[in-house]
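User: Can you predict the 3D structure of TetR/AcrR family transcriptional regulator? Sequence below.
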Amino acid sequence: MTQLTATSPTETNGQEPRRRPGRPRHADTEPRAYKAVIELFGQRGWSGLTLDAVATHAGIGKSSIYLRWDTKHDLLIEAIRDFESKNDLSPDESLPLREYLIAYATGRGRALLGEEGQTMLNIVSAAAANPVEFQEIREESIGHGILPLTGRLERAVAEGELPPGTDTGAVIDGLEGSLIFHLLIAPRGASREELASDLERYVTNLVDVALRGLRSR
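Assistant: Sure. Here are the predicted C-alpha cells for TetR/AcrR family transcriptional regulator:
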C-alpha cells in the first residue's frame, strides 16, 4: 500500500503554487484609484465619497480596493500625496520677493482652474468642517503647498524685503483666500478660459497691492 505524504504548496514538484481564483492584479490599480478618488472628491465632497464609488469610477474590482485601503481617508491621503508629488508649485527661492509671489500665486491659480481645482476647494471646506478627521489631510495638502511660501516670507522679513514684524500668516491668508474667492467662488460669470487668460494680470495686481500695503506701514 502506497503511503501518501502531505506536501506544502511550494513542494509540488518544484512548480509554482496555484494562485487563488479571483481578479488578476493590475499594475495600474493605484494610479487609477488615485485619479478616481480625486475626481469623485471634487464632484461629491467628503460625504459623497465611498470606496465602492471609487472602484466603480476607476473600473477596478471592489476587492482590489478593499485589499489595499481600509478606509476612504487612507485612499484620499495617498492620492493627495501622489498629486502633490507630481505638482510641485514651489517657485525658485532665489527669485526676488515680488517675482516669487507672482510665480507662486500664478501656479496656485492654474491649479485651482485645472481639473483638480474643485477637489482643492473641497479639501479646504472639508478640513474646516471635520478638523480632527482631516488634520492629516490638511497637513498633507494645504500645509505642503504653503510651507515653502512661509519660509520665503520669513526670509524676506529677516533680510529686510518686508518690514519687521510682518504677519506672514496674514499675507498667506490674503493670497490664498483671494485666489479661491476670485477663481472658484465668485467668478462673476466668467468662464475658466477667461479667468485663465486674465490670471497673470490679476495675480500681478494682487501681489503689488499686498506689497504696497505691507511696505507703507
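The CA atoms of residues 203 and 209 lie 10 Å apart. The first helix runs from residue 29 to 44.
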